[in-house]
Amino acid sequence: MIYEASILDNLQQFMMYTGFANATLGHIIMIVIGLIFITLAIKKDWEPMLLIPIGFGIVVGNIPLFNGLCVSVYEEGSVLNILYSGVKQGWYPPLIFLGIGAMTDFSALISNPKLLLIGAAAQFGIFGAYAIALAMGFSPSEAGAIGIIGGADGPTAIFLSGRLAPDLMGAIAVSAYSYMALVPVIQPPIMKLFTTSKERTIKMKPPRAVSQTEKKLFPIIGFLLTAFIVPSGLPLLGMLFFGNLLKESGVTRRLAETARGPLIDVVTILIGLTVGASTQADKFLQWNSIKIFALGALSFVIATTAGVLFVKFFNLFLKEGNKINPLIGNAGVSAVPDAARVSNNVGLEFDKSNFLLMHAMGPNVAGVIGSAVAAGILLAFLA
Asked: How many C-beta atoms lie closer than 10 Å to residue 238's C-beta?
């Protein structure tokens, strides 16, 4: 009898340590959300490189645990906590920007510099959401971190929120990456709403050929200009332009291939998994998270609208034949190249011969620079 009681006590104690005994409704909700992310990535092909790591990370982070196991992302010394330090301390995002720079061709922007203004106009989403967040009761630092979601730039959102609002980083990062994945869903209705059938069929002149010298000089000149204007954006801007210099110099091919291949892939895995794991139910399922997702959606809508309306306004000063198709206004957000693809696909709906992809890449890459500059401005004023 004593032996049987001992076995029962051991089984009871074992059960207390399992996830079944420690599970709450919050854990179940978050696990379901993680599985939805994975399903959308696989079934709909919505940013699978992001949604699968984040979705699985959400599942990992919400396995019910009891304190003392030293496996949670928030427990000092755990493996997940060590990997999460790249998010908390902000050294994952610059590495992502290094890879983005090494894979980005800035020719469309170099050949038509006025497209830079579209990328700048789309940053209104960031500052619009910042003002609304302040009105909703968030502190200036929290509002700045939330506003950056409008840039549709996950690494920048992580970089800025880690410095301005670490407690909100999980919700901000998941929101930013979610809206990046939803670019093909959110933007087309806005683009069609604010353009006429005539504007949608505007055919732009083919971009001029860009010389290798221009391509080599661009990252150096671009870095010096932006870094002197916004020194606080140096980690992101420096790595972005450095990566592009590796690509365009012609003598560092191996370094460029590493930056845009294995390096960015590894960092994407780590950043997605750990950001997902940070969304533990007790920290994520709060009223503030709902407000952050709502503000993120609003900032994204403002950014898209501002880009499209700016092109319409800009066209008032351009001669016939030099006008810009307003459908590329959405590409001012920094979701590269998804936003540019949306511009092209919507354009083809109304004219099967009107290919806008190369034109849209101009404001799209300008948006990458613009969001990093905007982050630097917010960091300088609010940190």
From this structure: 18
For residues 171-196, average pLDDT: 89
Note whether residue 302 is domain-resident: yes
> The domain containing residue 207 runs over which residues?
78-382
Q: Which tens digits make up the pLDDT trace of 79-113?
A: 999 999 999 888 999 999 999 999 999 999 999 99
**Could you tell me the CA-to-CA distances from 114 to 25, 45, 104, 108, 222 in Å, in that order?**
52, 33, 18, 11, 15
291 vs 275: CA distance, rounded Å: 19
Q: What is the pLDDT of residues 325-360, one digit of tens each?
A: 999 999 988 888 889 999 999 999 999 999 999 899
Contact 118, 328 (CB under 8 A): yes
Q: How far apart are CA 103 and CA 232, in angstroms?
A: 24
H and E: helices and strands count for the chain: 22, 0
| 194 has pLDDT over 60 | yes
CA distance 339 to 304: 10
% of the chain exceeding 70 in pLDDT: 97
Locate 235 and state its tokens: 């980690």
Question: For 206-216, what is the mean pLDDT?
Answer: 92
The answer to whether residue 215 sits within a structural domain is: yes
The dihedral sign for the CA sequence 107, 186, 124, 226: negative
- Residue from 273, 249, 374 nearest 49 by CA: 273
Please give the tally of structural domains in the chain. 1
